[in-house]
Amino acid sequence: MSIAESIKHQDRLLTINTHRDGEIKNALPGVHVSPCFLDPDNGVWVLFARFDAGTILPRHFHTGVVHFYTTAGSWNYVEYPEDVQTAGSYLFEPAGSIHTFSSKEGTEGFMVINGANINLNDDDSLMFIMDSGWIERTLHVVAEHTGQKMPRYIKPGAVVDFSQK
């Protein structure tokens, strides 16, 4: 097989512009989400998110790695108050990390997440599991219930079928 035969044809670039395509306001209280890429089959979610001032998310455990690039504002993990992330900060989180997101002034950023967030109550019991499929379903439900337009996002697809003999 030649290289030319293995190239995948595209009619257009798969690109998202969060300014044009929009966001879901209050996907969670104080969290506004522009989905970029949601792949429930492989557990990958890519989001641009804005967090209102005073936002504190539930303490959570990551089953996979996280890449977070802060584009504006500031935030930190409650457990690491001295490590404030500001515009231009890139944070890598290994699988297995656990922490509580907090933004006093508000912030925004771009994140690539593999796996799930296991969100915990104060007593360490399970609150809910947030993964690519949960994000996708939740954004659609919030959009429908609040009359918001669901932003366009990239969703890889594969037809699941038996292999050829």
Commentary on this structure:
The protein has 165 residues and is mostly beta strands. Helices cover 14% and strands 44% of the residues. The chain has three helices and 13 strands; from the N terminus they run ααβββββββββββββα. It has helices at 3-6, 18-21, 132-146; strands spanning 24-28, 31-39, 44-51, 55-56, 60-62, 66-77, 80-86, 90-93, 98-99, 101-103, 107-114, 117-120, 126-130. The strands form two sheets. Strands 1, 2, 3, 4, 6, 7, 8, 10 and 11 form a nine-stranded antiparallel beta sheet that branches. It has a four-stranded antiparallel beta sheet with strand order 9-5-12-13. A hairpin with a 5-residue loop joins strand 12 (117-120) and strand 13. The radius of gyration is 18 Å and the shape is globular. The mean pLDDT is 92.
Tally of helical runs: 3
Low-confidence stretches: none
**Order of SSEs, N→C?**
HHEEEEEEEEEEEEEH
Write down the oligomeric state: single chain
Strand content: 35-45%
Q: Supply Rg.
A: 18 Å
Mean of residue pLDDT?
A: 92
Blueprint (SSEs and pairs):
Layout: H1 3-6, H2 18-21, E1 24-28, E2 31-39, E3 44-51, E4 55-56, E5 60-62, E6 66-77, E7 80-86, E8 90-93, E9 98-99, E10 101-103, E11 107-114, E12 117-120, E13 126-130, H3 132-146
Antiparallel strand pairs: 1-2, 2-3, 3-11, 4-10, 5-9, 5-12, 6-7, 6-8, 6-10, 6-11, 12-13
